[in-house]
Design a protein that fits this description.
The structure is a homotetramer. By secondary structure, the first copy, chain A, is α/β, with parallel strands linked by helices. Helices cover 31% and strands 20% of the residues of chain A. The longest helix of chain A is centred in the last third of the chain and has 16 residues. Chain A is globular.
Chain lengths: 342, 342, 342, 342
């Protein structure tokens, strides 16, 4: 390492939401990144350090002007529907894009249209997009110029279930994912649901009848398992800022013991620097992963019913969003996968 | 109501723990109760208002002296194992006892011994005890002189599942109860797990490999359903003071629609003043029930998998402990069931 | 108590904000109140139990129609400026009104106009209004038909300082009130400041250059002390739902010891059921008063500087708003002062 | 930067408390540090990543064996009294020590003995120690081999008041410091006061009659101002994990306007990378500094009373403890002051 390595130019669109600001925080410390532009329609003209004083930078938020974006890497941290049009215009020109919205996650446009209530405007581009979960799709991500960064719930659930489904350990049609999320997962938009006195000292299930992250889990896990995976998914809102804990339940197909399953999980993730499978008898906690890009998994078999239980924790803004987006950038740029991440 | 009604003398043993103090708070406002003694070994000699300044009373904590307890009603809010000996001595003498410990909840002493690790000292008395869930055992409670007040998790889970099991709607051997509890559920004893900086901004599953409240759920629900009910139960610790939210998952045996099930639930609880079944499409939140004796239930059928989801909320110190204990006292004394409760 | 006492009809205008809903909660349990109408423009037509499920009542929110309000007692829990017009129309007709807004609290209209930025529309009515702090103005409140219910910060600060100022113990021009409030004090209106992830794990001073509750404190304490009281007041937002803790600092004029001052405070409040002066060496905590109408005071003299420190705690929705409003109603109606309050 | 710079060996004694673990976290990312040993009597033999899973390292906690400590730099994060003996044995041998306890902070041993209740065992070593607040003592720290790292409250208060006192703007004998701290400030030791359900939804003043951090503030500020500074200091416990917000009040000696004072503060700290003076009209919040080594200051003059108000925020584990300890190490070792800190 005898000479300083060159830096790559990066733009973040939608830099002042929670995911966008976390991206900026990580990118400012990344040794191979020069953060060139931060774009925010709402706060154009203001220093981003005024909106998020934790960010130590002189960068000024700019309005969105596609032509003025010249960076090699662009992160889009925008609402779905908005994102697909902008990504469509940015694409090409030897540029790599990581899109944090849902717009390029579902390969089946009819499913997209069913869950998001609108026709997909970029079906051709969609076919080029890679689902950005490095633990499943590392090689494709490395060659891709458009990565669809996974949702926070799917990241936690897929990592919890992938080894069991790939190795055909569990039944595919009776999987339960009971997920608990901190409030940043709901974004920075004001709602009564996220008004402090309504959330504090409270908890609740929401979108019990169907949450948009469900098809994403089912699509990826079905691909992996070679069959139709069906999940009962219930997300819950918990009074804390960051973190998702997903408790996953599935019926075992074979009579394996817990150590055998733990071994299979450990082997499945042996090349993955950010996923840790805990020893038998240990279970992960949210505080172990917040402000990091890590996912920790603990598992057991219930004595009475014989069901498999897998518990997965991530930071919804880390491995569940911005950390994973930078992990994807590292892969796309040929950097070491862990660079600038913790 | 032309003349004031007489009051009944009450003693609370273990009055300074969270359940004990909540009992004292409720009993001080109860129109038919004269709170005669509050007993606390740890704080004997001190005014209880010094330990819990919210309690407006001049009562002084006393040491435990069985002979000096002359009240007609005694609440024992003691640790298991300790409780059974004391209840054994108090029993008889025309007295009614509500025991908040686990000691008289399980009719099968081998199960008690397996889960609690000690031989039951009062098997004869155990046979006289009634499991104090009024919604299932109201008539027996009315005639009983020893009520075993249910655990907080079993209360939430049994109320969520009883109608479905009694009416044979769901399979008995694949039920999942994912429960989330506030920290008072862990009691007032100091542990690193409940040290503020360890719980705050954190959450975790605990006793994933087996929690003592499981056999209680299985025993009561098996009785009700006429078959062996098997539950996968995972409790979680959530950073808030009071409240349990249980998300229950079960496979439906018949193809009922959600409205039919909601009707069956509503009918099941039509005589129960403290249980509310929400309209289809509504789901309950913790904040709706804290500081009350209420349980609220919401249910749906998952579109993809067809599994039944029932969500149940209670205050772990209310319907999950002290509120329910007073509800049981009301029944045992022939008072209106809702008296002094909200 | 040989016959049931008659109930008095009550209307609450602005019933769905935090103060309004707390008023409804207290009034539903009040033995002499028949709650006739709950008025909410935003939620007209909906059951109030749907907006605030903790409220067990069938009352439906109604729009505001002055002519249809026939209750003897009206509580107005409305924003300032809005309130004064409505109270103006309601006044008279043998009716008693408790106004929870700031509109009738300041007798000096030029001060009102300076701080609230608008001309007072009801100067004649203002002269009839009594500042509803029972500990200072009990006799006037009893005879009044319009009570201006104090602000939450002024309640905590005035009760902390009144004895010292009335007895001329402290200098009038160098008093500091450092107040810390839970988030319900900021109301139910959505703001970024009260968005959960912004408040949780955060705290901040606000309106450091001048908060509208300051003139209210100064006016009442000046009246009491017979001189111009000047206060440096800084409010802080703290991540909890309910409660104000005010730490007040003042320079003593005479060399009294702490026991003498504690005696004077105790004597000052000896007739006041809701104010408690703690023994020397004890200091109050928020948790002792939440969900109650109580104020607890602790005091000491700083060893180094000789300054007096008085710490005061209340529930901002209890003694700081709705509890105190009911205490005022009790006085206005000739009921026992503590009736229906805890 | 054409060749990699050498790393320096570091040992942390007391590595598993909150300050110790935060030190380890920072040191693991520091580009010039090789963390050689982590010492914890309680957890000797266990990987520190098992006690604090956020720490990604294979280091095993060791028992304390003075002879085996060979690092050039030692951090002692131990309780007072314990620390002074160990530091006494470690001192010398061309080694630099940063002591995070109170044992070497007070130059006047009679004051130490009064507040800590024991005779100082190392008076000679005490004379060599430098009070490790770089903004006041940078040059002395650079030359020192024993730095007494300041307490968290003194750091926040001294930085808030130093410019005003050094420039003789305020009266010395009537300063008020009202400080609010998160719960990690109370350490990892279990107490009822820091049991989750007791702190959550609560707040309280503590040690109102005298807190040990007071003499530290007074000693340093007296030195700086050339006169006897007297402070009324009240600390408060707030339900959040990290952060101190100190609101400081002082009477101005001269009639300066707020802009002039803000200019003097800005000038005072112009060489200090971690202290920021906000523009007039802005005030800092805790969330801006947590997980950093920064201190942010906002100030104003109260309109009514003319008192100066200065608000100061730090992370009690960052600038209030471990961040500052690393800043001191950077100075002692001739590294850039900001290296490895944010």
């Amino acid at each position: 390492m005898s000479k300083p390595e060159s830096k790559i130019g990066v733009t973040v669109i939608g830099a002042t939401g929670y995911s966008g600001a976390e991206l900026v925080r990580i990118l400012l410390q990344h040794p191979r990144v020069k953060l060139e532009k931060v774009i925010s329609r709402t706060f154009a003209g203001k220093p981003i350090s005024q909106i998020h004083p934790r960010l130590r930078t002189n960068l000024i938020c700019q309005g969105l002007n596609i032509e003025e974006i010249t960076s090699s890497i662009v992160f889009a941290a925008l609402p779905h529907a908005t994102s697909m049009g902008i990504v469509g215009k940015l694409h090409g020109k030897n540029r790599k894009i990581v899109d944090l919205s849902a717009d390029f996650r579902l390969q089946d446009t009819t499913i997209y249209e069913k869950w998001y209530g609108l026709v997909h405007q970029q079906p051709n581009l969609l076919r080029k997009a890679v689902y950005g979960l490095p633990e499943l799709n590392r090689d494709k991500i490395k060659k891709s110029c458009l990565v669809a960064n996974p949702g926070c719930y799917p990241t936690a659930a897929i990592l919890a279930l992938a080894p069991a489904l790939q190795k055909n350990l569990i039944e595919k049609e009776a999987i339960i994912v009971d997920a608990k999320s901190g409030v940043t997962g709901a974004g920075r938009k004001l709602t009564l649901t996220t008004h402090f006195p309504e959330v504090n000292e409270n908890m609740n299930a929401y979108q019990v009848e169907g949450h948009r992250h469900l098809p994403e889990m089912e699509e990826e896990l079905s691909k992996l398992s070679g069959g139709k995976v069906q999940i009962t998914f219930v997300p819950h809102l918990i009074p804390l800022n960051r973190g998702i804990l997903s408790t996953c339940y599935a019926r075992l197909r074979n009579s394996l013991n817990v150590k055998e399953i733990q071994d299979l999980y450990t082997q499945f993730y042996q090349q993955d620097p950010f996923v840790e499978v805990l020893p038998v008898g240990s279970f992960p906690q949210i505080k172990e992963v917040i402000f990091s890009n890590r996912c920790r998994l603990g598992l057991t078999i219930n004595n009475t019913t014989g069901w498999l239980i897998v518990i997965s924790v991530i930071d919804n803004l880390g491995k569940g969003a911005s950390g994973q987006a930078v992990q994807n950038m590292n892969l796309m740029c040929g950097f070491p996968e862990e660079l600038g991440l913790c």
